[in-house]
Amino acid sequence: YWELSGNYNQFAGYTAQQIQTGFRGQINVLRNYSNVVGYDLINEINFPGTVTVSQGVAAMKVAAPIVRAFTDLPITFSLSVQAASQFGGAWPEAVAPYVDFQDFHYYYFAAANNPVPDVTTYYFGDAAANPRTPYFIGESGIGASAGEGDQIERWDGAGALAGDSRCAGAVGFCLADFGAAGSGDYGVYEADLVTERSWLAAAFAGWPS
């Protein structure tokens, strides 16, 4: 689910049965694909200005048990990380009881192009929240309008996270553009799936296998 009309607390007025039917239908479509490793139930539940922590918790209390009732795969609620400190703080704490892994979407420029120290400081370094689940990088990147240099830097930063021994995995986001220039042109390929951004292909090739 994406933003749910800004009303996570009540799931935009859907009943529990409707929520269950929706999640079950989506999972049934995906469950037979061997490369599906888990489910992100609400995309970027902490997206700035969209929902409060308490509203997010209310939504997770509804969604998590519904989904766990009919799948054994891990679940998560992804978090948008737009500054180093967002690897820690209220949102990872709120999400932790409901997830099997933290799904971070890496969207800032780290010092020395290496966000691993930030994860160490803000996620693993918070003694009040240890032990920590593994983390996963579900999204990253920046649009082509930012220029080759910024795109490479963002992909290299995500690659550094992918190489961290505490990282459960990372998605190269994304294969092809999913929207217009300035908003969805993140792809290794343009929308035609033919025109390659060679600098991104090279950056992705440098990620650990």
Write the layout of secondary structure elements.
Layout lengths: L15 H15 L8 E2 L12 H16 L6 E2 L2 E3 L8 H6 L6 E5 L9 H9 L10 E5 L8 H15 L4 E4 L27 H8 L4
Parallel strand pairs: 1-2, 3-4, 4-5, 5-6
Q: Report the C-alpha radius of gyration, rounded.
A: 17 Å
Strand fraction: 5-15%
Structural class: alpha/beta
Low-confidence parts: none
**Main beta sheet strand tally, sense and closure:** 4 strands, parallel
End-to-end gap: 29 Å
Shape: globular
Helix content: 25-40%
Strand order in the sheet with the most strands: 3-4-5-6
Could you tell me the number of beta strands? 6
The average pLDDT value, as a whole number, equals 88
Q: Which H/E pattern describes the elements?
A: HEHEEHEHEHEH
Total number of helical segments? 6
